[in-house]
């Protein structure tokens, strides 16, 4: 039986480590990280803090744990967290914000992931015995469900001004912050200087096998370290995770530009196909979402047909499809994907 080699556009989490990363894992200097004694972890954390312009950093196993740890480090139980209605924290983290952290999420709907400042002001609860205390504002950069859109430094600064006026902290789920920085040709510090703390992922476009980092002030990271332990994230010889992370931060960020170029090419090709609607304003980084327009086929059928033709993708709601480029996806893969999609949408519908 012939094995199909798929063009996997489901997510940039499917990236595999480079040979250099694999070698680094093999030769990493190790120690017990729960005691703070893993030299490779310590080196990665120092590098991450420097890259983000913050005092300290903490390695955690996943982005979801990074967000939950950060929420619990910023807030007390019963307090209100303001976030975007399509945010990853709200949609894809199993309700941990409430089930584990005991926090009250207050979602704000936006068109691009960036808050309308006036609407944000109105959401902050006044000091009143009837209301939960507004403690934290969360932003997501780049924004997954809005198609990889960027919240610019100017927008973050405006949000931060509101937060500081009300003595509220600002947290950034910066899972793909390097995509934002590369796309706008800016230093990540241009984004992070306006937030109190943040997380970013190593295991997406940077191609590491596992891991995310929480970054912020020293006292915040000390608290986060204990909460990480509470959540089962205390790791021992974690240098095997940290070693490829060091390579990622030193060598893998600039190549994200290729992923962005591939998305733009894919968007251009798909915009010419009848039955597809692409919002060109949201083509900013490595995520492309498009709508199947009537009389196009059902999205679940469409995904199955893609797989039958060697392409993997995901839906994001009724007749909405997401494609994500990453290391391992080349120009010819983009052209083939577009050809497959056109073939599916032009063939006779099955009854």
How does this model look, in words?
- It is a single chain.
- The protein contains 14 helices and 13 strands.
- With 351 residues, it is of the alpha/beta class.
- It has 2 domains: 100 residues, Alpha-Beta Complex (Aspartate Aminotransferase, domain 1); 233 residues, Aspartate Aminotransferase, domain 2, CATH 3.40.640.10.
- It is 40% helix and 16% strand.
- The protein has a 7-stranded mixed sheet, with helices on both faces. Strands 9-10-13-12 form a 4-stranded antiparallel sheet, with helices on one face. A two-stranded parallel ribbon has the order 1-11.
- Helix 12 packs parallel to helix 14.
Large-scale geometry: globular
What is the CATH homologous superfamily assignment of the largest domain?
A: Type I PLP-dependent aspartate aminotransferase-like (Major domain)
- The CATH class label of the largest domain is Alpha Beta
Low-pLDDT ranges = none
How many domains would you count in the coordinates? 2
Biggest sheet architecture: 7 strands, mixed
> Helix coverage percent of residues?
40-55%
> Kindly state the mean pLDDT as a whole number?
96
Report strand order across the widest sheet: 2-8-7-6-5-3-4
The number of helices is: 14
CATH architecture of the largest domain: 3-Layer(aba) Sandwich
Short note summarizing the structure:
By secondary structure, the protein is of the alpha/beta class.
What labels would you give this structure?
single chain, 351 residues, alpha/beta, Aspartate Aminotransferase, domain 1, Aspartate Aminotransferase, domain 2, 2 domains, 4-stranded antiparallel β-sheet, 14 helices
